[in-house]
Amino acid sequence: MKHQAVEGFSKLSKEGKIEWVINEYLNGDTSTIKILKQYWNDDADLQKLHDEFSENTVSNFYMPFGLAPNFLINNELYAIPMAVEESSVVAAASKAAKFWQTRGGFKTTILSTTKLGHVHFMYEGDFEKLNTAFENTIKAKLVEETNDITKNMRARNGGILNLELINKTADLANYYQIKGSFETVDSMGANFINSCLEQFAKTLKNEIDADDNFTQEEKDSLQIVMCILSNYTPDCIVRAEVSCPIEQLAEGEITAEEFVEKFSRAVRIAEIEPYRATTHNKGIMNGVDSVVIATGNDFRAVEACAHTYAAKDGQYSSLTHCEVKDGIFRFWIDLPTALGTIGGLTALHPLVKLALGILGKPNSKELMGFAAVAGLAQNFAALRSLVTTGIQKGHMKMHLMNILNQLEATEEEKQFFVNYFKDKTVTHHTVIDEFCRLRGVTSVEEIKKN
Ligand code: MEV
Predict the structure, then answer these.
(1) I need a surface site. Which of 107, 124, 319, 405 has the fewest CB within 10 A?
(2) Which residue of 89, 90, 263, 279 sits with most ligand 1 atoms within 8 Å of its CB, as the best mutation to test the pocket?
(3) What pLDDT is stored for residue 249 in this prediction?
(4) Residues noted as catalytic
(5) What is the percent of the chain where pLDDT is above 90?
(6) Averaged over 309-324, what is the pLDDT?
(7) Each residue's pLDDT tens digit, 347-381
(8) In this structure, which residue's CA is closest to atom 2 in ligand 1?
(9) What is the pTM of this model?
(10) CA end-to-end distance (rounded Å), the chain
(11) What would the pLDDT profile of 163-183 be if each residue is shown by its tens digit?
(12) Which of 276, 286, 398 most suits a substitution to test ligand 1, by most atoms within 8 Å of the C-beta?
């Protein structure tokens, strides 16, 4: 069946939107109403708050909000809130936290906090003339004419750090940029940076128009393409690291030396092999994103930035590194990430406020540290499993609950399976076979029919 385009969808009530989707896409299936409404909050004000975060909202999409305790970071103990749907992630973080808690814990260092944005523009004229005007007059005007926008940020020790004219004509004819560097203190800074950039564009155009050194053709050729912050922040970096004497790394039957060799080799492979680096970094982002989401920050921005940074040397590579020096094993991540602890959802979403409360109301630098630590911990746990027992042992144990929930297993049945798999490897087909045996049926379809 071909579907009809809809006019004025956003103006329909929530019920109206649901009715429309049922009729247009779900063959009139009214059970949809129950599915969507069971996630509505009874507290009408809280529901309205959530509805208004985004547009055309018809329900809420829950994500588990978990805690990974025992993180010793810079000599303080923390429980890290993590919002993530994937089984094993919180468990792996907690396991790594416990491991490092008795080996000196995690250390974080802020390497830099500069954020960037660009006015992208076209200009068909003499570059030297433009450059001279930029350095002599325009730059100061850009600062002066954004004074109102930057006032509050300056009061918090932030603001515009630097302005540069960048000639990009070697890559694209007539293409230039004003590159702005900013300090946005505890806010992620997107709105602040974009407001400054849009004013820069107006000022640039006005200054060139008013400057008699430029010909009319040159003035007319100046076209603003766009003004936007860059989510790539290679100068907003936090380092998280762990280290200990190698003899403390013995793992079950594996000696410390063997573990270090296997672990270091796995990191080295991720450094040189993009196929592995992608999965390796995905595991890191399991930890990073969970913290970023729980604390109401923009995980798409953090993801985009991390992956660009991972490819900064021309080939996609590992975000984590390790070394052994003088008998000390050291494992670290340099994570570029722009996070905020004020603005955005941070003061609005009750769970975000709570998450920040659990973390001791961190400033943005401290929050960068928590995200990087969660990423490093996640990577440590994943590599440790991968190079020793294999990932499926732990992962499938956690996945067991998902399979059992899909099968609508009772609490007694779940308990049976947890015990059953204590000393066995979980596989999907074993769970299904054993479940059918327990219920006295030959197939899952038979259960569904009953
Ligand atoms: C799964 O979400 C993440 C891992 O694949 C990461 C890795 O392979 O390093 C386990």
Answers:
(1) 405
(2) 279
(3) 95
(4) 86, 282, 298, 395
(5) 87
(6) 98
(7) 899 999 999 999 999 999 999 999 999 999 999 99
(8) 283
(9) 0.89
(10) 32
(11) 999 999 999 999 999 999 999
(12) 286
pLDDT tens digits, 239-279: 999 999 999 999 778 999 999 999 999 999 999 999 999 99
The pair of structure tokens assigned to 274 is 């993009």
b/e 362-390 (16+ beta carbons within 10 angstroms → b): bebbbbbbbbbbbbbbbbbbbbbbbbbee
Amino acid at 440: G
Measure the CA–CA gap between 64 and 83, rounded to whole angstroms: 6
Distance 269 CA to ligand 1 centre (A): 14
Domains located in the chain, CATH noted: 1-62 (no CATH), 84-110+234-389 (3.90.770.10), 115-230 (3.30.70.420), 394-449 (no CATH)
Residue nearest to atom 6 of ligand 1 (CA): 283
| Structure-token pair, residue 200 | 């820069």
Q: How far is residue 53 from each of residues 59, 130, 188, 259, 337, measured CA to CA in Å?
A: 12, 43, 17, 47, 23
Q: Ligand 1: residues whose CB is within 6 Å?
A: 86, 279-280, 282-283, 286, 382, 386, 391
Closest ligand 1 atom, CA of 276? 8
Residue 379 CA, closest ligand 1 atom number: 9
| 3 CA to centre of ligand 1 in angstroms | 40
